[in-house]
Design a protein that fits this description.
Pectate Lyase C-like; 424 residues; ubl conjugation pathway; alpha/beta; NosD_dom; SCF-Subunits/Alg-Epimerases; signal
């Protein structure tokens, strides 16, 4: 009986193995045989193989295509020039630390309509220039970056959806890249730039991350017309962090419901102009930063509009503050009453978190008026605007998200108070 079972098993294996062997490498063999400029269409189906493309051809999926591999090497490796990859789903199930779904080097490649599921890295660009990646999606497991650049310049990333990765798009020593109209959620940093200059971040949405965007030791970055939303799930969360960076232009963005809207640390000569900063716990915060400009912004519904620590030489003028007292005597659109953003409540609760229970109570407001914060923590606007620079939907802003933040703070403080009593 056992002999018959073995015979049947051998017959089954002999029937299936040739088919598997024939299927393996069929796409790669077509790539190997293709002439430069050829278009290879992949028939609908699932393919368990890895591909290496080194010449200028187009690889295009016809119907639903899945390339899958759990090996240590990338599912697709692209080098040389002018390779195009279109309409393909790539799944990398390998769990090695540097495992990557698609690895790209060389120049002028194009990836379009790509869907990636990965345990580690989605797409890595290594000394890759002039690459375009658009209309694609990357889903990870927070163990690697969605798109990772190393010494890669003049690339374009457009209309990407990136979810649940370590950093959505990470740039290191990579200059002149354009990151446009992407949606990045539930990651550590939505966008993360290190030692990278003259990059443009435009019309992106970075939401529910720990930090929406971080700029570190980067110069001449343009951050324009983006949305930084609900980056508030950590005590270190912020919409935009500018750290040791210079000559950054931050214009026309929305910072809504973050823990800190904009955090500027040890950074100089940056310009924060005409942004909507609304319903954050702290609107803008400076730490050891000087010679920055904050002008023509709209501050609405923040618990603390602004704070400065060891940052006395910043220009903060001509902003709209909903908490400011406003009188315009000469009709120039600016209030004659100087506005000072006093972080008294923030300083108090940092020292004693339980005081969050008294948020917005009459007694605390009276104390804030009597006991002013140190001068080096005040941000003073000598000419606050009478009207907003950007439209705000007041019915949406008024207080829902602010109340949510406040309730969380109160519950946390109440827990500390109760448990503290029990321990005693």
């Amino acid at each position: 009986m056992k002999i018959m079972n073995y015979i049947m098993l051998l017959l089954v294996l002999s029937f299936f193995l040739p088919a598997v062997s024939e299927a393996e490498g069929t796409i790669q063999s077509k790539i190997n045989e293709a002439q430069k400029g050829a278009v290879i269409e992949i028939e609908e189906g699932e393919y368990e193989e890895t591909l290496v493309i080194t010449k200028p051809i187009t690889l295009k999926g016809k119907g639903e295509i899945l390339l899958r591999s759990c090996l240590s090497e990338p599912v697709v490796t692209i080098s040389g020039e002018s390779v195009t990859l279109k309409n393909i789903k790539v799944e990398h199930c390998g769990d090695e630390k540097e495992a990557t779904a698609i690895y790209v080097t060389g120049s002028n490649h194009k990836l379009e309509g790509i869907a990636i599921e990965t345990k580690r890295f989605g797409i890595r660009l290594d000394n890759a220039n002039g690459v375009t990646i658009k209309d694609s999606e990357i889903v990870g497991r927070k163990q690697g970056n969605g798109i990772d650049l190393w010494k890669s310049n003049q690339n374009k990333f457009e209309n990407l959806k990136i979810n649940n990765v370590l950093d959505g798009i990470y740039l290191e020593k990579s200059d002149g890249n354009t990151i446009h109209r992407n949606d990045i959620q539930r990651s550590r940093y939505g966008l993360h730039l290190m030692f990278s200059n003259e990059n443009v971040l435009e019309e992106n949405a970075s939401r529910a991350n720990i930090t929406g965007t971080m700029l570190m030791e980067s110069k001449r970055t343009v951050v324009r017309n983006n949305k930084f939303l609900s980056n508030n799930k950590s005590v270190n969360a912020q919409g935009l962090l500018i750290y040791l960076s210079t000559d950054t232009e931050v214009t026309g963005n929305e910072f809504i419901s973050n823990r800190v809207g904009i955090f500027i640390e040890e950074a100089e000569n940056n310009r924060i102009d005409t942004n909507k900063i609304m319903d954050n716990f702290i609107g803008v915060q400076f730490k050891k930063s000087n010679e920055n400009k904050v002008i023509r912004n709209t501050f609405v519904g923040n618990v603390n509009d602004a704070q400065a620590i060891e940052s006395a030489n910043n220009q903060v003028n001509g902003n709209y503050w909903d908490a400011a007292s406003k009188i315009d005597v000469n009709g120039d659109g600016k209030s004659e009453i100087v506005y000072s953003a006093d972080p008294y409540f923030l300083t108090l609760t940092n020292a004693v978190p339980e005081y969050q229970l008294f948020f917005q109570t009459p007694g605390l407001i009276l104390l804030q008026n009597i006991l002013k914060s140190p001068a080096d923590q005040l941000l003073t606007d000598s000419a606050p605007l009478m009207n907003m620079t950007l439209e705000v939907e007041k019915e949406k802003s008024t207080s829902f998200s602010l109340w949510v933040i406040s309730v969380v703070m109160i519950l946390s403080s109440f827990s500390l108070f109760i448990f503290g009593r029990k321990r005693r």
